[in-house]
From TrEMBL:
This is DUF2062 domain-containing protein. The chain crosses the membrane at residues 42-69, 76-103, 139-158. The keyword Lyase does not apply. Keywords: Membrane, Transmembrane, Transmembrane helix. InterPro entries: DUF2062 (IPR018639). PANTHER family: SLL0298 PROTEIN (PTHR40547). Residues 21-171 form the DUF2062 domain. The lineage of its organism: Bacteria, Pseudomonadati, Pseudomonadota, Betaproteobacteria, Rhodocyclales. The keyword Transmembrane helix applies.
């Protein structure tokens, strides 16, 4: 897994040369943000899964800040935030709404979103904002709860998968040594 990801992630040197990232200096070039091990990978997946439910374009910004604080693998966290996309965001928000309604004991029902019109983009955005506000407490409770559950599950899954991979490699080496 490490070899697979290492060849697909940008190198620190390519980022150092990037014209937009040069202004950040060495902040983004800290070695722990680019080092890939089971701890940084598990933290990055957890951060990406948690920040993936942040609405709008703030997902990657939130993930980047969390990686800087936690010193987790930055490219992996940014990649993982992409699990929310136009096909998955509605089911995830429905799940968050249901989870929030269950936890709060609310009998609120999910209301369908208003129709979208490209002709009046400002009015459509306003209608969507009003619609989100009607979802209220169940969604406000459900989103962080679902994000936390996804992050915890992702963290444990990566740690377990990495551990299973290491144990399998140890057994392969031991078998190879016995043959020699």
């Amino acid at each position: 897994m490490r070899r697979f990801l290492k060849h697909r992630l940008p190198s620190p040197e390519s980022l150092r040369q990037h014209r937009w990232l040069r202004m950040l200096g060495n902040t983004l070039l800290h070695p722990s943000l680019w080092h890939l091990n089971r701890h940084s990978a598990a933290s990055a997946v957890a951060i990406g899964l948690f920040c993936g439910l942040i609405p709008g374009p703030l997902q990657m910004f939130g993930a980047a800040i969390a990686c800087l604080i936690k010193r987790a693998n930055l490219p992996l966290a940014l990649l993982v935030t992409l699990y929310t996309n136009p096909l998955t965001i509605v089911p995830l928000y429905l799940l968050a709404f249901g989870l929030g309604a269950f936890v709060t004991g609310s009998d609120a029902r999910f209301v369908a979103p208003p129709p979208f019109s490209w002709d009046s983009l400002g009015e459509a955005a306003s209608n969507y904002w009003d619609w989100l506000l009607t979802l209220g407490k169940p969604l406000a409770v459900g989103l962080p709860l679902l994000a936390g559950l996804l992050a915890l599950t992702g963290y444990v899954a990566v740690k377990a998968a990495w551990r299973m991979y290491l144990v399998r490699e140890w057994h392969r080496r031991a078998t190879r040594r016995k043959r020699d």
